[in-house]
Automatic annotation (TrEMBL):
Pfam family, one: HTH_DeoR
Keyword annotations: DNA-binding, Transcription, Transcription regulation
HTH deoR-type domain ranges (all copies): 4-59
Gene Ontology MF term list: DNA binding
Highest rank taxon of the organism: Bacteria
Listed name of the protein: DeoR/GlpR family DNA-binding transcription regulator
Length: 259
């Protein structure tokens, strides 16, 4: 977890214990400048975690009691179901072949894929996620294509129109996609609207479309519709997936790996 993520989580915990705090008080408690606190508050306001009150930080009680699971922070998501996500990531990495060109999506599960990419396999990887870039940038066998743009600290995603154009010009052998929700009628969904175009373009640019999602994501609906489930050629999940979902996926002709 980065220092900023630790600080954001600590700020939230402080506000949970008291009704609110001034910027000056938070700067003193967190041992940072008031400017840093203001930037952190802007991040949390964008996620509807705190209320937009000038000069003060007040926790949104709707977030604190009703929507805590919906406030997506990558560091928190990565820790959730970590064992299952690690197994999924390891298996997904084992599918990479020499000279593959792969696209790694944005999300917590695909970070475990990046952790387990074979060190001795020559390949090309496209990503627009800073965490994934940091995990692969020192591997001399990986040719990296990185899309930049506006940085979203909650997901470590870079977003821009130029990024979309770059993705459209890539033809990948495999796309490793992630999702925040998978539903039988509402399809595959994600949390943030700014992710949508990047994720949709990534999926369209891969010959084999592989969805990485732990079993807790199935039956879940998140705000932003990404695509229909049957777009994917393969789904990798954990052994906690229900029999109903196993049957549904097999009926759609999608290859299912439960690891």
């Amino acid at each position: 977890m980065s220092k900023k993520e630790e600080r954001l989580n600590r700020l939230i915990e402080i506000l949970k214990k008291q009704n609110g705090a001034t910027i000056r008080d938070l700067a003193q408690v967190l041992d940072v400048s008031e400017m840093t606190v203001r930037r952190d508050m802007d991040t949390l306001k964008a996620k509807n975690v705190i209320l937009d009150i000038p000069g003060a930080a007040v926790l949104n009680t709707q977030y604190a009691h009703d929507k805590e699971e919906d406030a997506y922070q990558l560091s928190m998501a990565t820790r959730s179901h970590a064992k299952e996500k690690e197994q999924i990531g390891k298996f997904a990495a084992s599918l990479i072949q020499p000279d593959d060109c792969v696209i790694i999506d944005n999300g917590s599960t695909v970070e475990y894929l990046a952790d387990n990419i074979p060190k001795d396999t020559k390949m090309t990887v496209f990503t627009c996620n800073l965490n994934i870039l940091n995990k692969i940038c020192n591997n001399p066998n990986i040719s990296i294509i990185f899309g930049g743009g506006y940085y979203h600290p909650d997901t470590t995603l870079f977003e821009s129109a130029e990024n979309i154009t770059l993705i459209k010009n890539i033809r990948a052998t495999k796309v490793f996609a992630s999702a925040a929700g998978v539903h039988d009628t509402m399809g595959v969904t994600c949390m943030n609207n700014y992710e949508l175009e990047i994720k949709q373009t990534i999926i369209q640019s891969g010959a084999e479309k592989i969805l990485l999602a732990d079993s807790s994501k199935f039956g879940v609906i998140k705000p932003c519709f990404l695509t229909n489930l049957d777009v994917f050629d393969r789904i990798i999940t954990d052994t906690g997936l229900s029999e109903e979902w196993v049957q549904m996926i097999e009926d759609k002709g999608i290859r299912l790996d439960m690891v």
